Amino acid sequence: MYTSSLDLLVDELRQKTAQTQLGGGQKKIDDQHRKGKLTARERIAYLTDDDRPFVEIGLFAGEGMYAEHGGCPSAGVVAGIGYVSGRQCVIVANDATVKAGAWFPVTAKKNLRAQEIAMENRLPIIYLVDSAGVYLPLQDEVFADKEHFGRTFRNNAMMSSMGILQVAAIMGSCVAGGAYLPIMSDEALIVEGTGSIFLAGPYLVKASVGEDVDAETLGGASTHCEISGVTDNKYPDDPSCLDAIKRIFDKLGHTETAGFDRATPAPPAKAPEDIYQLLPVDRVKPYDMLELIERLVDKSEFDEYKPLYGKSLLCGYARIDGWAVGIVANQRKVVKAKGRTGQAPEMQMGGVIYGDAADKAARFIMNCNQKRIPLVFLQDVTGFMVGSRSEQGGIIKDGAKMVNAMANSVVPKFTVVIGNSYGAGNYAMCGKAYDPRLMLAWPTAQMAVMSGASAAKTLVQIQVATMKAKGQPLAPDEEQALLQKITDQYNAQLSPYYAASRLWVDAVIDPLQTRQTLSEGIAAANHAPITRPFNVGVIQT
């Protein structure tokens, strides 16, 4: 059986996934079990419906970071979108196998991203709390800034005012400022014997006021359910506490939806597995993006918008798992654009956005907003076209028009980085800065200001010129060694896992998971009615 290079990348993804899901390792997992506790992933598996998917967010957050502190797999927290008693929701579970669930800087970023997803999509959120609080050696990077630990509690308050249900289960330690998260939720449950919540633990109480008190008396289940009234109810073990959450969700009222259209789902007519052979791993090689689209959409039906104009971008309507979507995708094969009268036809390079394509995409995006159709961006882009012909043709204003329409869209946007995601092309195709509801990457994705080869050559030229100005010119072999070193460093930063570790993307996925992941994202977005009118303001013409 033929195995493509993409097969190998997907296999690497599976291996990295399995390793990361072990959290702090088997020994730490066994320690949890000896304490009578489920792990974060076991709690989520028990809580969520068996027949519905759990879309994990930020699995690779923290990947390769904090090596001097022993690492922080998955940022020490498991988060995602799942179903509890048939109701879609966001779930956040501290992983006590990783530094006792302590908050690293990336942990705060991941928790805030989970809350952002709940707020954008008006989804209920469940917190399964088991955390030692801020990781003190890095407290200066997680405590005081706007997007640090404290923002979590600000979001608690904001979600409460928005009418978004928050349910917290205290299933382990809950200390100091972290104590506010469950108690600012609508319902706070606690597990007897293992759950505890207090502003200051026994050691700090002893040091501060000289009082000797054990953790259970200070902040255990009996104290807070029978004396302080801080928590609502106590349960003998993890499963019974999680069962209580299921009962809460079983009785939730229903709210207004955005009304996005969904027909009966149908699989693609063309085999999705063909993507493994159709997509070259070499990011320079051309391919026909239309062939990939036809393996992602229902019945392989794609109603293309202005197919003969602006051909370096594909725009059109389709359905993904029944949901109506508008797709904007970079065409990666060379196309020919007809010239105006007196001008020769222009051969347009794949993956580059030309003025006519940007103009088409802007109009298409505005049409999707008019029709209340969610937008899906498929990125494999090296940037906008440069040169005198493009500048004189108004590439800047055409690009500005596209960015304006995309940035001001009121319909939900979803982005999949299939290949390249460079420079201003990342922005125009709805990069992270433009609030996609989900930003996903295939294992072939590369994100940076420019390609590794271009960046390395530029950086080497700068260093060679600097050394020459100092009277220290480099020999050819030294220059080549420097080029290789910079290329290797830059290429490491192009990896989709580098992007995922910093939450520039929400997940790295197997291409065959794309349909289901996008479907769940649109289902989540459908919980949030569109209340803001679409207005692009002053647009370039």
From TrEMBL:
It holds the Pfam family Carboxyl_trans. One of its GO terms (molecular function) is methylcrotonoyl-CoA carboxylase activity. Residues 6-264 form the CoA carboxyltransferase N-terminal domain. GO terms for cellular component: methylcrotonoyl-CoA carboxylase complex. InterPro entries: AcCoA_carboxyl_beta (IPR034733), ClpP/crotonase-like_dom_sf (IPR029045), COA_CT_C (IPR011763), COA_CT_N (IPR011762), MCCB/AccD1-like (IPR045190). GO terms for biological process: L-leucine catabolic process. Transmembrane segments: none annotated. Residues 267-536 form the CoA carboxyltransferase C-terminal domain. PROSITE patterns: COA_CT_CTER, COA_CT_NTER. PANTHER family: ACETYL, PROPIONYL, PYRUVATE, AND GLUTACONYL CARBOXYLASE-RELATED, METHYLCROTONOYL-COA CARBOXYLASE BETA CHAIN, MITOCHONDRIAL. This is Methylcrotonoyl-CoA carboxylase. It comes from Arsenicibacter rosenii.
